[in-house]
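pinning this so it doesn't scroll away 📌
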Amino acid sequence: MPDSRPPRILVAADKFKGTLSGPEACAAIADGLEDALGDRIEVATAPVADGGEGMARSITEAHGGEWIPLTVSDPLGRPVEAGYGFFHDESGLRFGVVEMAEASGLWRVEEKERDPWRASTFGTGELMRAAIEKGADRLLLGIGGSATNDGGSGMALALGFHFFSAEGDVLTEMPADLEKAVSLYGPAEPLPPVEVACDVTNPLLGDEGCTAVYGPQKGIEPDRFAAHESRLAHLVDLVGKAGADASKVPGAGAAGGLGFGCLAFLGATLRPGFELVAEVLGLEDRVREADIVITGEGKLDGQTLQGKAPAGVADLARRHGKPVAALAGIIAGEAGDPLARRFDFHAAVVSGEISAERAMREAGPLLRETARRHAEAILALAKGTSHD
């Protein structure tokens, strides 16, 4: 007997950077489709992220969790307002979700203030500690966009690791005092498991390490590379064999060596960002149930195809034989052919009539209108699928 139900459309978009969060972008697309198609479709939303900016809020909101603001330290030790997510899954497991950029991001420090020798991940550790004290059984941590190059030593200090000088004094400034440290001890209480969303593959040290590759954007001058490299090598020696092993793991150099710190201090697992987010959101089951999947982000270009969320959504849809469409603020011309192969349909807000400036200014309404304008094409794709 033929299936007479309306086609199911899953909207799984990432943020439109600088204008719309993932949930806001999904809502705008869903509203536009419903404006045009009404009860001819069933629409569900699943905001996604790739482990970068927006990951914590997307995961927290998707699970109906709580966003908890608090005052922590910025990279230079100044008090700032930041936050973390907290939610329970269906089994009752309690999750804390943290983005290191909330507290320790480069955006927190004006260019003239950048001091990578002193910049610390202590504030990230404070967010993690707050989630643990609230009762988190597991931590999810997104890393990227850091102002730091401290190997995660600041985070470790905030989580109860103790660094000692040769004189037996407790060192309280990391990484500023790191060179003075000759021993360290972990916290008395065990820490919960930590999974880290990490999409870079750099080791901690060497020509492909965090100092050489990412240091310049944080303000590290070439004549200071050797000093930073030496200090991080000292941290590796301080941790011992576990540190030596962790320093070589792909991703150890992420976020100024925070990847290394998570491995060496916390025994964390580093995972591709979209893979981690998709698992926590149960995205694969939702894709399987849909007739078509719509994804998107602010700009579709060559970088989209290198591990960003829309490409991950497209791959997941393909795996289950579902058509996939992409709506974006801008579609870069040089990515046209690869994008055409990855998506069955794609359209941009910015067009001959709509400038990039206007698209930024009126992002929500214009994205809604773009979805409405292309709704029939999306419906036709959806109807071309088999109804399982």
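📌 and the second one:
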Amino acid sequence: MKFSLDNLTKELVPIQNYKTLVVALSGGLDSMVLLHALSELIENERIAAKIRAVHVNHRLHKDADNWEIFCAERCAALNVPVKIKRLEKSLLNQDESNLEYKARKERYKVFESVMDQDCCMLLAHHLDDQLETLFFRLNRGAGIKGLTAVPQDRELGSARIFRPLLGVSRKSLRQYAENQKLQWVEDSSNANVSYDRNFLRHEILLKIEKRWPNYRKSWSKSLKIISDAHSILEEAAATDLSLLSSQGQNKLSLDLLMLLPKERQRNVIKYWVGKIAKKEIGWNKLHYIVDEALPFVSESNIEIEIDDYLIRSFRNQLHLFRRFGQLPEDCDWDLGASQKLSLTNNGVLLAEETIGRGLSRKLVDKVKISFRQGGETFRMLGRPRKSLKKIFQEAQIEPWLRSRIPLIYCKDELICIVGIGISEKVLANQAEAGFLVSWCFPQD
């Protein structure tokens, strides 16, 4: 697509209801073209929004302060308000291999900090950026999600990011800039082919274009096909997940999962982990789960680490949950004074005042909260005394939760296993005030 004011106007239709458009302004060719073109559209009353700009000075380049001055001057010439944000010098001391990633992360924090709900942030990424990104992701063996196009729009906190130039080539943007006699800054490091992206841009893609002049068009078509395929896979995974997780989003039925072909097993597990843990599960680990772990799950329980999350199997289900923090110390709880008790790394205890149910208020007021140490026994109403191990097994409590279930003691006697049972000795009689104690423990 050739860059023009008409085409830009069409691309901005999805965000026409935003009152303010904020241009992420680096001072380079792409963002200067976008800033100028938006100014033209507003001046000619072709869009109703106001525009402003934000420039982030990363302080990582010897000319960074000059770029900051340039952006401020160009915005003043176009009568566009601009916010200048300077990153902390501590970024300069970071390992160079991670510098670009960390700078980008800090930059997006700045973007989010300057946005309001009625704002939309415009980024000047273009078609060549898309294709370069595709090349890099192919080179590192990315999956279908990784190979999808850079999204045209996405959320940014309570605001939105939008990229209106993704269909426009760098060459077309340069033609517009030269026709309009625009000024922009050139990063001298962009000519250094020791950097991978510069090598790709100046060596590889130039040769590809010389041999196949229309490669942008064909690669763009492939990007669209990949994006469509990814959308279909996401829809299929969402459907499978709804069937497999009827007992909770962080649980999958193993019986139903094993009925699916292996490719659908991988697809739904990948989607499940992404939805709950917000993690991208790796190709090797995904194939290990489906090809090596699941076929033997009836013989041996699964335990698989995914960063700070775990996948574990128990009683014909796969569970996904965040690693637990250290158990809290034992503590006292005055039920009469507070009906809520927060437990460090272990959720919250709630006490509901009732009549004729729960812990007798006259018998139990101040209690002690503790956790399983081993060897404890307990007698619930109408049942013989049993070990906690046996009680947990009969209640089908997941092994990883057994040590975390709060135990309520009164005068050194175990009177309640929260969520499982109460001792007959402290049970509220009919018409007697009592406390129903519950445990809220998030596992995702």
